[in-house]
Structure prediction request, 152 residues.
Amino acid sequence: MRLIKGDPDGKDLKIGVVISRFNTAITDKLLEGALQGLLDCGVHPDNVTVVSVPGAIEIPGAAKKLVSQVDAIVTLGAVVRGETEHFTYVCKAAQEGMIQVALDSGVPMTFGVLTTENSEQALARCGGAKGHKGYEVAQDAVELANTYKMIG
Prediction:
């Protein structure tokens, strides 16, 4: 058996981060964690491109424009359930769009768009009791970029 698993060394990688500005109290924390995660993997700050978009539904389009410039993309956002079905449509569009861009481009992407019932749940996932999803998906992007390079 041959196991292919990328390492967390990002010193030679270019990473894109696409972040939604909607729910900035949450997404700012996700970005802070993601940048720290990339730094902890050795990604040089000059090799990180952050693209800010209005909402989660715009993330896939920006990611598609960014794929030719980076080795991996981290997507960050926060969709908190409201009183209407809008939550369901936004979550599904963001997820499906990101998957399509990743499959079409061959560039690895990680999904750091929180989809929670309330703001408390989201905050617990960006440095609170449930860990830091921004940090985690950033480190996963580095590993995936290296995995993809090993596969060829």
In short: The helical segments are 24-40, 59-66, 86-105, 119-124, 133-151. Residues 85 and 91 are 10 Å apart (CA to CA). Residues 15-144 form a domain with the Rossmann fold fold (CATH 3.40.50.960).
